[in-house]
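Q: Convert this sequence to structure tokens.
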Amino acid sequence: MQDMVRMWRKTWKAAHRRAREWRMIFKGLASTDHPVLAHIIPMRRCNLACAYCNEFDDHSKPVPLETMYQRIDRLAQLGTTIITVSGGEPLLHPDLDLLITRVRSHGMIAGLITNGYLLTAERVQRLNRAGLEHLQISIDNVMPDDVSKKSLKVLDRKLQLLAQYAEFHVNINSVVGGGIRNPHDALTIGRRAVELGFTSTVGIIHDGTGQLQPLAPGEREVYAAMRAMEKYSYAQINYFQDNIAQGKENHWRCRSGARYLYICENGLVHYCSQQRGYPAKPLADYTLADIRREFLTEKSCSPRCTVACVHQVSYIDFWRAPQTITGDTMLHNESERLVQIQ
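A:
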């Protein structure tokens, strides 16, 4: 009986979540004056040290709860539709459940990106109660090595707990490229994810600035097999990776700084995790004028970009508003502004 109740709750929540996602798309099509997705960092520290990752340290303290509340509230004021909590490792933050609850209190979709190591049955159930709607774990290999400890061997028990208890959507992302020694591991990971009832995606590991690193022939074969395995959802809109796999550039309109915001632990807005440093403006001071400017700003890094979340969010606006402001122009204007201030 308990299993039937859990299955009913999970089915109802999935239908409710899907309806909210459709509203997100309609809202995004109706207006360009709000962020669709924001990644927010409450914790830069991580319990792992994957060799390819540049998004963590081993000493930072958690951002205080009230400070995080202020940032979530400000994102709500800007009209943000989805907030994904990332890191570092966000499960290390002592008040993560309260942050998720705060996101949901504003009617925004709540997501979480974690390495999964700290998940327990009790922790998954707390995430259910907090209102989490999406969770993603990236698993890099079948057996841990000196590149990554995010292995199926270590995490399979955690995946079983999620399959049993999670009432939110779970996506398992496997990777190819970037020094991963056994590209065929991605297929093993993807098949296990589907077996457990999760969605499965594949990512192409970028270099230290989020830029294109073409796949070797064997890696491209694995990538093609993984793409065929994917179930449909908004997260699976990643056609840009087909070009990346072949070493080709993508010609698209990156809407980072407008439709996508990356909020670091210091509360600054950046283009993305791989382009930290601009606009680097405090979220508290970020306005509609900033959103409109960045919506029209061409990013010089975009042709070779591999950052999936920015590509996916930008698809909403691929058909409109050619970008008329160049990055060089923006840097020049910013330099003039700083001179005037001084």
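Residues 2-30 form the longest helix (29 residues).
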